[in-house]
Amino acid sequence: MTGTTTRQRLAENIRRLRRARGLTQEQLGNEARVYQPLISEIENGVANPELDTLDRIAAALRVDPSELLARSEGQG
């Protein structure tokens, strides 16, 4: 098992998915109805977002919310 925390995994997954879709933090925030500074805090592992916020981010990224917490390939 690696030392990756759930918050770090969430941050990495949101950043990866956002970039893969060619979105800026501001664009993702607009689509998810979340202020861009909160997107930044989530991606930096600072914020502890509410479930409804994660649902809106997942919808904006067009993924199931569980994918935001999923372990990436190669993670223990």
Count of distinct strands: 0
Query: What is the CATH topology assignment?
Result: 434 Repressor (Amino-terminal Domain)
The geometry reads as: globular
Average of per-residue pLDDT values: 92
Instruction: Extract low-pLDDT stretches.
Output: none
| Rg, nearest Å | 12 Å
Which keywords apply here?
single chain; 76 residues; mainly alpha; 434 Repressor (Amino-terminal Domain); 55% helix
Account of the protein in words:
The chain is mostly helical and 76 residues long. It has one domain: 434 Repressor (Amino-terminal Domain). The protein is built from four helices and no strands. The longest helix is centred in the N-terminal third of the chain and has 15 residues, at 6-20.
Short description:
The chain is mainly alpha-helical and 76 residues long. Helix content is 55%, strand content 0%. The mean pLDDT is 92.
How do the strands and helices of this protein lay out in sequence?
Layout lengths: L5 H15 L4 H8 L3 H8 L7 H11 L15
Helix pairs in contact: 2-3, 2-4
